[in-house]
Amino acid sequence: MSTDTYGHRLSVFSDRNFKYLMVAPGILILLLVGIFPLIYSLVVSFQNITMTDVDTSFQGLLNYKQLFRDARLWQALGHTALITAIALPLELVLGFLLAQLFLERMPGRQIFVALLVLPTVLSPIVAGATWRLMFDVRFGPIGQIVSYFAGEPVTLLWTVNPSLVYPAIIICEVWQWTPFMFLLLLAALSNVDQSQLEAAELDGASYWRVLRQIIMPAIKPVVAIAVLIRGLDLFRIFDIIWALTEGGPGSMTETISLYTYVIGFTQFDTSYTAAVAFLVVALLSVIVTLVLRRMELVK
Amino acid sequence: MLGASLLALTPSMALAQAKNAAEVAVEAAKKFAGTEISIVWEAGLQSLDPLNYSGPKWEKLTGIKVKVVEVPTDQMFTKIMQDFRSGAGAYDALNVIPSWMPDLVKAGALEPLDAMVDQFGYRDELQDIAAAYRDNQMKVGDKIYGFPDDGDVMLLYYRKDIFEDPKMMEEFKAKHGYDLAPPKDWKQFSEIGQFITDKMAPKTYGAGFFRAAPYPQYMYQERFRMEGGKFFDAETMKSTVNSDVGVKVLQDMLADNKFMPPGVEQWNFVDNLANFLQGATAMTISWPPYGRWAAGYGSGEEALNWVPKTQVAGKVGYSINPLGRPELGVGFALSVSSASKNKEAAYLFIQWLNSKQTSLERVQLPYTLRDPFRTSHYESAEYRKLWPDAGAYLDTIKLSGEKGLLDLSMLQQDKYDEAMSKALSSLFAGTDPKAVADEMAAQFDAITEKVGADKQKEIYQAWAAKPGAYP
Amino acid sequence: MTALTRRQRRALTLAMRYLIAVAVTLLFLFPVYWLFMISFKTPEEIFHVPPLWLPGQIQFNNYWVLFKDGDVVAILNSLIVAGTSSVIAMVLGTFCAYSLARFNTGGENLAMWIISQRMIPPMAVVFPIFLIYVHFGMVDTFSGLILLYTAFNLPYVIWMMRGYIADIPLELEESALVDGCTRWQVIWKVVFPMARSGLMATAVFTFVFAWNDFLFALILTRTEVITFPVQLTHYMGGQSNFWAKIAAMSVLGTLPIFVAVTIMQRYLVRGISLGAVKG
User: Fold this and answer.
1) Per-residue CA distances from C63 to B47, C36, C51, C56, C70 (Å)
2) CATH assignment of the domain containing B449
3) Which of A56, A90, C50, C70 has the most beta carbons within 10 angstroms of its beta carbon?
């Protein structure tokens, strides 16, 4: 007689098949769309297909060796890591604060929440384009506002000045995705056991203790996944940067997805792009596994 | 083979003598009535031509339906290559940028057109295309792969009213010792620009350019060559963009920003246009559409209602660029996909589009982005009447075309273009010009090495031998 | 100074929360406001220096043009594609998630494999997928895009719902099972209601991800199934920027989601779910 993870008896027939039945359709679709492209990419990465040559002979590690000589690739990875490292915590903290703000009932809360979700709902292309216009020196309001507070006309070249390009990108990114964290955390926080909280309040526990010992553990599963998803998405950030700087000035804000776009889509270095893709997948797998292990351990 | 094509020529030559190329194409296409062909076209304003005008007209004349596949410019190359590589063959006719042609041809994506050109007697009308485009944007090797369809060339636009203002002229002559007129070289350009800014800023500045990627690299290509620079050492194929001349050109381009409006480093094509149309800049360099829009031609058109209303209509003069040899810059050609299943129908459509008769109508559409490119366009009485200065406009375009410089075009050209574009955006962001030039040269060399210096040398020398490659 | 009564303190807190809420909302919405305003401006107003904070008059011409030219069909296409794929992904994904959360099906390997799908750079797989689609004639079709978006959102749904389901106390299900319910009934009667807020939050973003996808929509369609993001990029040319259309189209394209979120965020309220439990 088999049991599930929690020790319940699984009836011989229904539960055991049940669990497989439940995952089957989803896995099937994932396989359909996921497996072939991966195998294809893998095979291609060992060939030498470029824009003009379709050389499908086995080339061994030709493309993979190239990876290590490609400075621009590692710079792109660095840029991506930088953006992720700054934006992700910002989004998490701001989202948490917002969720706390709106957790308790208040009249009109529905409107606030619905409005606050708008930035996330905008197409990233539009978000990037809108901020580009807003940052514009002549036609955008940001310059106007800054000049007003500074008392004199200030020219800020957000999309060209090397010290301002990263802030510009991060502002746009955090603006757009904090509501995502906000919504997720709101859902998670609203599920925290009310009775525990009330008991703690009666006991006179300070806010910080309540936070650490009741709230954090309760929302940890959701936070962990939100961080994971958002982190992975940040790694693939593209539209915002494309709209704001196109990876410029020079290649200063070129992230890995922009770089992959350039070599894969405009230069058609198909084989090399596949190798880069696998490098990225490998790197991310390692990171994700490490992160998951840590979270699982503490779980 | 020769005999067969001669036989094929005879009946259609008889036809050709009676009808022009447009009519020939229509006649020959009628047998495909009821079918549908697709054409890839740049999305947005460009597509209005086939969507609202040429597509419906063709359908009326021949019964062939035209499906316009709109693709954003920066995706065009990708989609064309992917369609070809996958064997999907979903595209029949194509718009391609001429500098892509060597790569596309090498990959096998374009159909050679010579046979059909002869079959339908198009050689004559091809000769009418201005030499700059005809001789450089039509063939790869010695085979025809596309019909140049756009007279892209850089023009200098300037505010006649400022340049002809007596007070300005007097003070300028007093200060600099020569007459205030469209600059003949870049030194004059800087002096005039600075002078106007000193006198008229912040209402009007001396000049403005688009400095944001990807277009500044065309201005760079022009200025670099005109000041004596060469992209490569023809023997070793080592890049020489970081020679002293190269560094100087970069320094000068950066220095010009000083008298331009603040924020010019961010300007793209539309920003530059808006500023010029609003009178904020006294000089600018750009493609021919600025001239039409500045004159207010087509301003009532709904399709153009995103263009700010011109405040400088009637005040704009046209001139050839400083140093007298402007960059041709981009351009478009009509081609047939080699994977198409309707090659003949697609070919006939592009012959008709490109013909003397139809192309004249098309370049006069108020919302068009296709610029005059045929001798018959430049001389068209009809066109010259479109607005008071249209005659001067056409004359300038014609002269500029004749003197035009070709865009650099080698294997994997987009990689070189990218290197130049990134270099310029670095430059305007404040990186030291020498460092920028060295980086550009290093990237050029890396690309050349990857392609194969020998292969590239052959292509480069062939390109460099053309009259429009180096002054 | 007299101490504030409990009631007064609460009123003060509420007032402060309101103040902050309004300030934060204004800040976050400013770009959206700007976009809205652009959609009502004429080109002169868009390129006006200094920037105009209000259009001269509210004119709907920019919207009217979109309807007239038929561009609005892109919104319809996106609704169909994103809506259908989201529903499918939510259903299949939640069931998967339940299985993973309660039975640990496939162990860590399966879970890892699922999340790894989201690590794959889309650029790398879009061309092979294009090849498959060409082979099966699925390019430029609704079903093609729906299948794709479902597949790409499944990992997200599975992982999110796994977390939310894990949050639901086991006792609830146990008591229901003891009461004689089958697993299916447990899911419908206990899990779904309890996980409602999680379901809604996940559903919203599943829809948004599908709605906003650009890369696959671009490569896998030509003319028949042009979705909202692809239509938008048609307005951004090298030599033209239809700002008015971009803004108007963006507003139109944001409305459906805004409506959906407004409806759904009813469920993101603390307290609803717990009422059932304690009794």
Assistant:
1) 20, 11, 22, 16, 11
2) 3.40.190.10
3) A90
